[in-house]
Structure formats: C-alpha cells, structure tokens
Design a protein that fits this description.
By secondary structure, the protein is of the alpha+beta class. Helices cover 32% and strands 24% of the residues. It contains 7 helices and 14 strands. The strands form 3 sheets. A 7-stranded mixed β-sheet has the order 3-4-5-6-7-8-9, with helices on both faces. It has a 5-stranded mixed β-sheet with strand order 11-10-12-14-13, sandwiched between helices. Strand 6 and strand 7 form a beta hairpin. Helix 1 runs antiparallel to helix 2. The chain is globular, with a radius of gyration of 18 Å.
Length: 275
Amino acid sequence: MPKNYLEAATEIAQEAGKILVEELSRPLDLHYKGDEVDLVTQADKRSEKRIVERLTKYFPDHAIAAEEGTGHESSSASEFRWHVDPLDGTTNFAHGYPCFCVSIALAQRSTLLAAVVFNPFYNELFSAARGEGATFNGKKMHVSKNSTVSTSLLCTGFPVRNRKASPNLQYYGDFTQRSHGVRRDGSAAIDLASVAAGRFDGFWEFGLKPWDTAAGVLLIEEAGGKVTDFAGNPYQLGGPVILATNRLIHEEMRAIALEISQRVPAAPPRPSESA
Ligand code: IPD
Ligand code: CA
Ligand code: CA
C-alpha cells in the first residue's frame, strides 16, 4: 500500500504510462467520438481501465471522474474525487508525436490535494501535493521569472469539438504578435505542467474539462504560479476559460485578454454549434 495519495497517484500514472508506450508501437486502433476529429484509441481505454482498477483497489470509497466514462461515484458519497485523463494528447498519440501524458489528481471537495502529470515517452514526471511544493523528476520545480508578455513564451490549445464556435484564433493571433511566441502542443495537462516547470510563462484555453486541468492547476499553484479565469476569479474545474501563469505576467495577460474580448466575445463554445 502506498504511503500517501501522491505516492499512489505516481505509481498508478507510471503503470498507465507503460501501457501507453506499449500501445504506441502497436498498430493504431482508432475510433471517433462523434465526428472525425475527436479521437479515442485502444490506448485511452486500456490506460483508463488500469487507472480505475488500481484507484478503486486502494481507495474503494473515493469517487472517480475519468474521461472515457468508466469511473464511478462512490457508494458512500465520499468527499474525495479523482480526476483522471488516461491519455491527454490523443491526437498527438495517434500521429506518433510524443507529446502526451497521463494526468491524475485528487480533490477533497473543491480543494486539490495531489497531482501527477506523466509523459512516459520522455519519462518526465511532474508532481505536487498541497502545501508541499511541486517537483519535476524528483527535484523541486518553480515557475519562470519572466515579468513581461513581450519576452514570454506562451501556450494555448484548441478544442476538438465545436471548433468554429471557439474564439481562440483571435487570442492566438494577438498573443503571438505580442510575445516571443505561442506554442500549441496538443496536451493541456503537459501545457500546464510546462508552466509549472518554467518552460512556458503563461497558458490559456477555452472549454477544458476537469480531467484536463485538475493536476496541472495544483502543479502550478505549488510551483508559485497563479490560475484564474479571464476575470481574475479563482479558476473552477470545468470553467469556460483558464488562465495559468508564472504570476508575474498574469495581470498583463488578463488586460490583453480583456482588450481582445472587447473585439471578440470570449464566450465558451456552445454544444449546439457544429465543428
Ligand atoms: C485534449 C488536449 C488538447 C486540448 C483539447 C483536449 P485529449 O485532450 O488536452 O490539448 O486542446 O481541448 O480535449 O482529448 O487529448 O484528452
Ligand atoms: Ca484531455
Ligand atoms: Ca484524454
């Protein structure tokens, strides 16, 4: 039995990561969730199955919210909930681009307690426990010290569903012109972990789900960064937009986002609109 929640999450993320690497060298078994852009593979399913089995064994009373739907609510209405993305970056995985990860976080009501983001291809492990700081491959990690957007490297992502309804292209263009650049790497969990590790100075995205962001949010908070919505309110899991920075460029990014939103309403994509 692991010593604590973080140790359990780490052990399980590494096991799931092994499955992803194994699946990467097999012929791709690809399916679509609805249309031809929202992909799901055998790797997503096998990874989730293992994570849910292992979490359930260690913590039978905890609820599990997992992306592919095989999690469960606890029978005793536990206040503990695991947020699981068994493969974040499925599109990258399906194309053999090794930017993908397992993302696992535990929340007690609305407080995040433990977080792990693991990229098994590069063996990169980002982890954090509330009040205990964040680490990258076992060493303390900290957000960057860059204090202006003009000298920052930023990152964002685009939704796979309702693409035409997303306002993000406008934000992407504007921030690209005002910074050293905006990367679009295709794994929100790795994007957030990269802010925590000081590789990126800031990240924003519309319409992410709790399993995409839960681990990354705690990594950034414990690494000294800041996570809100564009209005500056604390970010709520599953909220319409996330802004995550090294803290130093937070207000400048917010001001720029506000300026852009006056031209383009920052509305979340509506489910009724087509891709
Ligand atoms: C996706 C990735 C991507 C983000 C999408 C997510 P998935 O998750 O995190 O970076 O832009 O919005 O859906 O589908 O690969 O788990
Ligand atoms: Ca995801
Ligand atoms: Ca996923």
